[in-house]
């Protein structure tokens, strides 16, 4: 891939910051420039080494850009696009990271119809973290990155696909409407459902104050995406309103069906409902990351000795197993406790269990 001169990322939040860090690490451009309305964010991005330099001034950044990425919230993308249009070179590649595409792709294609080349994009990766402080150069590793061009054969699509590949992601070309229907089901609906689960538990907490205290790891894992930025997700839900309403109705139908099965004490029906879900869940490819990275968990019991977490990390890391997540579940002074470790593949999980068990630690998969 020919190295770009200047690549500009407008919006240095979690996604914009992570893109900057990943592309800077891959050396895809002579300079990576960041734009953000917050001076503190610009300073932090420079300090972290996410960008070569950052500024609040769009014109200053994009006037010599070869690639511009619009990484602002969906509700602000068109406004920022109009500003960018006034200053970009005529031969400039513009893309965005908006999580809805149908209406946006058409409107941005019109905005950049006579200046620059626009291709819609959506990296299917994320985190419950927010802001530049949560940026991670490996956020897009093994993730799917959807592209929604109006024409699939334009050279700029190949250029953008090569840039996506440098992130460690895999690009897929898809019609904007199809994209919106799919993400409504696998990204937007889960967030709304997670919020519903937390709000339901909160209601029970009002009647039985120890409810949330008793929430186990499974509840926290199931609902962790509810920790996402409410303002950002409000915009996403509204932008994909029609598709989200459709899948919410389908979800409501499923829940209503289960309510009827349970009320009727339909043993076979309840088992069939749960079995279908289990079979479908297990058919999801384990090695492909979706909107949130998949983590394979195990629980290990350790004695109460200083440096135990370091010992576990050294044992696994020394054999090529990387710990993606860690949580102390229970601990008792003088006795020990249990620690949850997360790794990023089924193979790594099996290897970790083998290594820990071989070292004498009681261990089990979750």
Automatic annotation (TrEMBL):
Q: Which UniProt keywords apply?
A: Amino-acid biosynthesis, Aromatic amino acid biosynthesis, NAD, Oxidoreductase, Tyrosine biosynthesis
Query: Could you tell me which residue ranges the Prephenate/arogenate dehydrogenase domain spans?
Result: 5-292
Pfam families the UniProt entry points to: ACT, PDH_C, PDH_N
- UniProt superkingdom: Bacteria
Q: Which reaction does it catalyse?
A: prephenate + NAD(+) = 3-(4-hydroxyphenyl)pyruvate + CO2 + NADH
| Gene3D superfamilies, alphabetized | 3.30.70.260, 6-phosphogluconate dehydrogenase C-terminal like domain, NAD(P)-binding Rossmann-like Domain
Pathway assignment reads: Amino-acid biosynthesis; L-tyrosine biosynthesis; (4-hydroxyphenyl)pyruvate from prephenate (NAD(+) route): step 1/1
Q: Which InterPro entries match?
A: 6-PGluconate_DH-like_C_sf, ACT-like_dom_sf, ACT_dom, NAD(P)-bd_dom_sf, PDH_C, PDH_N, Preph/Arog_dehydrog, Prephen_DH
Major enzyme class: oxidoreductase
Please list the residue ranges annotated as the ACT domain.
297-366
Which Gene Ontology terms cover its molecular function? NAD+ binding; prephenate dehydrogenase (NAD+) activity; prephenate dehydrogenase (NADP+) activity
Question: Per its UniProt record, what CDD domains does this chain match?
Answer: ACT_PDH-BS
Q: Which GO terms describe its biological process?
A: tyrosine biosynthetic process
Q: What is its EC number?
A: 1.3.1.12
Q: Into which family does the record put it?
A: Belongs to the prephenate/arogenate dehydrogenase family.
Name recorded for this polypeptide: Prephenate dehydrogenase
